[in-house]
Amino acid sequence: MSDNAAALVDARVDCLQYCNWSRKIFSQMREGGLDAVHVTICYHEDFRETAANVVDWNRRFLEYRDLIMPGRFAEDVLAARQSNRTAIFLGFQNCSPVEADVGLVEVCHQLGARFMQLSYNNQSLLATGCYESDDLGITRMGKQVIAEMNRVGLVIDMSHSAERSTLEAIEASSRPIAITHANPSFWHPALRNKSDEVIQALSETGGMIGFSLYPHHLHEGSECSLQSFCEMVARAADRFGIEHLGIGSDLCQDQPDSVVEWMRNGRWTTERDFGEGSADKPGFPGQPPWFEDSRDFPNIAAGLAKVGFDDQSVAAVMGNNWLRFFEESFVAAGAPKYCPESSYVGEK
């Protein structure tokens, strides 16, 4: 890690949110001490629709420039912290923006995207989603896209992908990949949570997993206790190593129920599929009381300390591990880890 990035002590990073963005939401990020947040800007959109979502975010960066700024490189986390703002990193929960054109991978990175899932629940052109009954693994195009993502510095995210596809992506990628929002299946066997084999392979290759606070991913759902969650993190640290663990809350604050329909269904089906654990309860489940919004991020740090994590380990899980991963991942293969002429600081 560069001297500048290393100087950032106790970074606070949430590596997945998809909220109904507003001044209130961004103010709560600041109250919770979040230095960086990875936000979803695509579920089923094609390239043109995704570009329109980038335009919307550029407008937000202007309108709320006192609270947020664009994130492109690890050093932007430091710039945001120094100016009392939150760096926003853009990501896709599906590969639909690259359509059937591998050349759009680089264009998406140039537009500011830093994460892309290879599939979202269903089979895609690249990989199999976790809701499919047959996991066909990484496709021919998937291998080409992985290589191009490695080249330009667009992180492979397998949060919603099936087991075989995830293991093959880890093997095919020349750079560490991420699972930005999921939990270990040893704690809660949700379809979206990840096996020991996947997390072990991820950690052995330098990857990262962000633990989710979305109730369908939690033991006992909305009733999950902070102690149970933090004990799970401690067990994962013992099994896989503390340096591969972070937080990806999957917070969907202030969203109407129609949004979860879009997430699950897009336009690919006329049936209503509200997702795992919610077929008879459309809409978003209630958050556990100890994590209702970004202001509660410090509760996790306190919970980790209570179950025995020292200060350095707490800081690692709460953001320093993601910061290191950002520095290694967001630049082109073979390029210097930090390019100051490319980093955005802007005026507060």
Please explain how this structure is put together.
The chain has 348 residues and is an alpha/beta fold. It has one domain: Metal-dependent hydrolases (TIM Barrel, Alpha-Beta Barrel), CATH 3.20.20. Helix content is 37%, strand content 11%. Strands 1, 2, 3, 4, 5 and 6 form a six-stranded parallel beta sheet that branches. Strands 7-8-9 form a three-stranded parallel beta sheet. Strand 7, helix 8 and strand 8 form a beta-alpha-beta unit. The chain is globular and about 45 Å long. It starts with a helix and ends in a 19-residue tail after the last helix.
The residue-averaged pLDDT reads 92
- How many separate structural domains? 1
What is the class in the CATH system?
Answer: Alpha Beta
Number of strands: 9
* First-to-last CA distance: 26 Å
At the fourth CATH level, what is the homologous superfamily? Metal-dependent hydrolases
What gyration radius follows from the Cα positions, in whole Å? Answer: 18 Å
Percent of residues in beta strands: 5-15%
The CATH topology is given as: TIM Barrel
Keywords:
alpha/beta, globular, 3-stranded parallel sheet, 11% strand, TIM Barrel
What's the short story on this structure?
With 348 residues, the protein is of the alpha/beta class.
Topology (elements, then pairings):
Blueprint: H1 3-6, E1 13-17, H2 23-31, E2 36-42, H3 47-63, E3 68-70, H4 75-82, E4 86-92, H5 104-110, E5 113-117, H6 140-152, E6 155-157, H7 163-172, E7 178-179, H8 196-204, E8 208-211, H9 226-240, E9 245-247, H10 257-265, H11 297-306, H12 311-329
Parallel strand pairs: 1-2, 2-4, 3-4, 4-5, 5-6, 7-8, 8-9
